[in-house]
């Protein structure tokens, strides 16, 4: 198992994109990584866009960035809620400063935009937030997955295999 000993933090809030949360978590666990799910509150069942639940095992404020090797941000409508929490933005900025892997897919780019870490970076996302990413100074590419150093971004659920293949490579190097 390639990721044994790695610890990853995934954010959650209501209306996350079900596959964009669960596929990465399951793939990383399959490779031996420990994955925590942080939400606004610990022990809450958050419901995805298509009705699949996920329970947070800690709150955003309880997550200590120095304990994690990487962060994942799922898409859906959840990122618009997740980015409103200063604790989340602080975690993302810390991981970026430390050059730790940050994965984002679909609308998850909103969280990175609010954390102000995208200027001069190459990224992708759902085309629906392309203008938002370009307006903060990112170079947006129309590709299934884009790797820019420790930042791994992807567009939509059909791209999940490519996204996780690249994210796992980046996390292995860390």
Automatic annotation (TrEMBL):
Pfam families: DJ-1_PfpI. NCBIfam families: PfpI (TIGR01382). Belongs to the peptidase C56 family. Residues 6-169 form the DJ-1/PfpI domain. This is Intracellular proteinase. The lineage of its organism: Bacteria, Bacillati, Bacillota, Bacilli, Bacillales. InterPro entries: C56_PfpI-like, Class_I_gatase-like, DJ-1/PfpI. It comes from the Bacteria. Transmembrane segments: none annotated. PROSITE patterns: PEPTIDASE_C56_PFPI. It comes from Planococcus antarcticus DSM 14505.
């Amino acid at each position: 198992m390639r990721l044994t000993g790695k610890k990853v933090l995934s954010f959650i809030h209501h209306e996350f994109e079900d596959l964009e949360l669960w596929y990465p978590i399951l793939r990383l666990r399959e490779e031996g990584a420990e994955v925590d799910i942080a939400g606004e509150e610990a022990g809450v069942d958050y419901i995805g866009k298509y009705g699949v639940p996920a329970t947070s095992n800690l709150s955003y404020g309880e997550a200590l960035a120095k304990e994690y090797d990487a962060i994942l941000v799922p898409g859906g409508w959840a990122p618009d809620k997740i980015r409103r929490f200063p604790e989340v933005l602080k975690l993302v900025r810390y991981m970026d400063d430390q050059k730790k892997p940050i994965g984002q897919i679909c609308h998850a780019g909103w969280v990175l935009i609010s954390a102000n870490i995208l200027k001069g970076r190459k990224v992708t996302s759902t085309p629906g937030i392309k203008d938002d990413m370009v307006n903060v100074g990112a170079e947006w590419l129309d590709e299934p997955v884009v790797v820019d150093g420790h930042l791994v971004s992807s567009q939509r659920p059909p791209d999940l295999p490519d996204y996780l293949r690249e994210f796992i490579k980046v996390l292995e190097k860390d």
